[in-house]
Amino acid sequence: MNNFLYPIVNPRSIAFWGASNRFSSMGTNQLNSVLDLGFEGRIYPIHPHEESVLGLKAYPTVVDVPEVPDLAVMVLPTRIVPQAMAECGRKGIKHAVVVSGGFREVGGAGLELERKLLGIAHQYGIRFLGPNCLGVANPHHKFNVTFLPFEGRPGHIGFASQSGSFITQMFGYLRRYHIGFSTGISVGNEADVDIVDAMEYLATCPHTRVIGLYIETIRRGQHFIEVARSIAPHKPIVAYYVGGSEAGRQASLSHTAALAGPDELYDGVFRQSGIIRAQSIPELFDFCWVLGSSPRMAGNRVIIQTHSGGPGAAAADACSRTGLVLAKLSRKTREKLSPLVPATGSMNNPIDLTFSKNPQDYFSVIPDILLQEGDCDGLLAYFLAPGHIIRRTMESMAIPPDQIPQRTEKIFDDQAKSMADLMAKHQKPLLGYTFQSHAELYVQKLLQSGVPVFPSPERAARAMAALVDYSRVVDRIKSAA
Length: 481
What we know:
With 481 residues, the chain is of the alpha/beta class. 42% of the residues lie in helices and 16% in strands. It has a seven-stranded mixed sheet with strand order 9-8-11-10-12-13-14, with helices on both faces. Strands 15, 16, 17, 18, 19, 20 and 21 form a seven-stranded mixed sheet that branches. The longest helix has 24 residues, at 457-480.
């Protein structure tokens, strides 16, 4: 891959400053994160006194390392970072991650120190992330240099953030939904590498299907817009902006010295860029989830499938509030549904079954019919499958108790696979929502199969609307080209 960030995100060898055998230090924790994920490259701890660090042979200076490492990682006191950068330059190292803080974000002498650091890097042709960042998490490369151990599995969300710890705090959150990062990049103060550079890398990353951004400021406004517009028709971009309020502006300034602007300005920037804006952190990842895993929507017409009136009405209201339209069922579709919907049910959309003669129809025949409807651009399905009811039914059928868990899991596996197959068959998004815990086995099976399931109809509807917005973004950019 011909991108200068590639060796930072996919290093084969690392020189690591700041780790020791003192387990409370930040550098030690970050090196432990690299080791915990099973990094397969070579690691060279740099330590002036220790002969080994965390079981690895240590070197008193980087000059003593037997090769020129791809990447330098620095978790050092602020005052000696420029010296370490100069040593990297003399060694021939061309890429670095500067975790250390205390630079521009603190003002005064910190600002001068950052200028000095950047000057040294330019002198030796070094490109670096930071300072005041946590670096990179790339589970596809088994590389995580952040403070917390990586949780979960490699995913499809490429993420660039002006907050370092924000990336690490999303590890467990994404794991619960069976999604994950393809690569997470913390840019910190953006002294050298900024969020535009990170976007350009993620646009070329083969594991990334959608790009998420956490933004406190945009420093290269026009270039940001141009790069985003070139990427958006091929990979969706979702951004969460912090700084539109006075409190947000002050927090951003003290965090990374970011000069935030008003919400209206960023609304315009995102609109020109073809970026989908999220209004909350959960929404940022909801949008990334569906945009990276669901088919495109041809329009904004939605069918709601439920077996309970209340959740169906709540979803209808949520759809209306987000600009989605409830599709009108054709006569042909109604004829197909008629034998499957009881007299107590409704075919008026929401399709409220109340119950069905064959419960499996809810996960196969019925959604198949609905997705065939010409006026349907996407399906929202309410999921309720209490495991204890299934187990109780099996007990009444005299099924041996030791066979019930396995049979229950098989039922859930089949139902989840059926829903996932229908989305692939019809190339229309199928999103679920439930009020059950996401720890329930049935919900876990749906997530494992690739069916997004949200904890409320409102979040499901907003995610569906993001799919509509993205289709309009692509059409608008292509028509203007």
